[in-house]
UniProtKB/TrEMBL annotation:
Pfam families: CitG
Membrane-spanning ranges: none
Superkingdom of source: Bacteria
GO terms under biological process: prosthetic group biosynthetic process
Full protein name: Probable 2-(5''-triphosphoribosyl)-3'-dephosphocoenzyme-A synthase
GO molecular function annotations of the record: ATP binding; glycosyltransferase activity; triphosphoribosyl-dephospho-CoA synthase activity
Organism of this sequence: Cupriavidus basilensis
Length: 301
């Protein structure tokens, strides 16, 4: 895959090809997640979903603005021998820089804050892995990094997701990462494989993967916008679509339209599930047995 265009002024040669390749995969995962249709309540190729301030072009611009930070995160992982506080703090600092870049690209609109956290950890973990790319191994490594302390992390951010965690007693994006991304490994990736295996078209398989995450996730974006009633509507509706055979069936498509109507009526948007879908795409697309180009191996000087 050709490297994605970087923002003006960024040096292409600042990182080795392996770091650039991992950043490319992360940005592509974000762009493909944004464009995927139909997604209930989310920005997609049809429109803005439940969002008055977002659109597909803005999501794409935001994703591309994150490329330099993802490349630096990959490079940081490649320079590490194992998960460590130093790596955790480096990834945290790069994540805060990435958020600032996102805000500059979007005029102050939060498009990918949660995805920066989840994909940043996974990109760093993928860089750290020396002898192949196992989705489960990378997710476990990312979880180990996430559980380490970061002295420079703000105690409180005031973000909607953080407030929803406090108000509703759920783990949120931080808990998902610290647990090693269970909804990606046990819901998103398995449903993606299952849908492909039964012959669903790739876009349908990807939407089904999103629904598999939605039916299990305590999505803080939905809780912040629509409370527990909105969350129950999302989880139960997603479960019904999958029970009908997913969106590759007529019954599944009808149920998806019902779910979307209900979510739009209560202004619910599963942004947390969307972030985990992008993480699913990233892990799904990693080369299965090739380490990043120019990555140091343990014992290298």
């Amino acid at each position: 895959m050709a490297s994605l265009a970087l923002p003006a002024g960024h040096r292409d040669d600042a990182f080795n090809p392996g770091a650039i390749a991992l950043a490319d995969l992360a940005v592509k995962a974000l762009i493909d997640e944004a464009a995927l249709s139909p997604k209930p309540g989310l920005v997609d190729g049809r429109g803005n979903g439940a969002h008055a301030d977002l659109n597909l072009d803005l999501m794409r611009a935001s994703a591309r603005a994150l490329h330099p930070a993802f490349a630096e995160m990959a490079a940081a992982g490649m320079c590490a021998a194992q998960p460590s506080v130093a790596l955790r703090e480096r990834l945290g600092a790069l994540g805060r820089e990435a958020e600032a870049a996102m805000m500059r690209a979007t005029g102050g609109i939060n498009t990918h804050r949660g995805a920066i956290w989840s994909l940043g950890l996974l990109v760093g973990a993928a860089g750290l892995h020396r002898h192949g790319h196992s989705a489960h191994g990378i997710a476990r490594t990312a979880g180990a990094i996430a559980r380490l302390p970061d002295r420079h992390r703000p105690a409180r951010t005031g973000n909607k997701g953080e407030r929803a965690c406090i108000d509703y007693g759920v783990a949120g994006a931080r808990g998902q990462a610290q647990a090693g991304f269970p909804h990606v490994l046990r819901a998103g990736l398995p449903e993606l494989m299952r849908s492909r295996a039964r012959g669903d078209a790739e876009p349908s398989a990807r939407v089904n993967a999103l629904l598999a995450i939605m039916q299990r996730l305590d999505d803080t974006c939905v809780l912040a916008r629509a409370g527990r009633e909105g969350l129950a509507l999302m989880q139960q509706g997603a479960s019904r679509v999958l029970a009908a055979g997913g969106i590759g069936t007529l019954a599944g498509r009808r149920l998806l339209r019902q779910l979307e109507g209900g979510m739009l009526a209560c202004n619910a948007s599963p942004g947390g599930a969307a972030d985990l879908l992008a993480a699913t795409f990233f892990l799904d697309r990693l080369p299965p047995a090739a380490r990043p180009a120019n990555a140091p191996v343990q014992g290298d000087k």
